[in-house]
Amino acid sequence: MRQIFLPFLLFGLFLSLPAVADEKFSVEIKVDVTDVNASVAREKALSGANRAAITAVARRISTQTGADKIASMNDAQLINFIKETSVLNEKNSDVRYMADLKIVINEDLLKQYMQERGIPLFLKKDISILVIPLFREFSGDTPLLWEINNPWMQAWNTAAPNSAIRFIPIQNSAGTAETVTAEQAALGDPQTLEYLRQAFGADDVYVLDAAYNGVEGLKVTASSLSGNHQTIIISGPKSSGTELFTKAVAETQKQLEQQILTLEQKLTAEENEITILYPFHSLNQWIAAEQRIKSLPETSSIQIQAMAQGKTQFKLLFTGSIDTLRRRLESIGYRLENGGNYMILQNIGE
Question: Does pTM top 0.90 for this prediction?
Answer without folding.
Answer: no
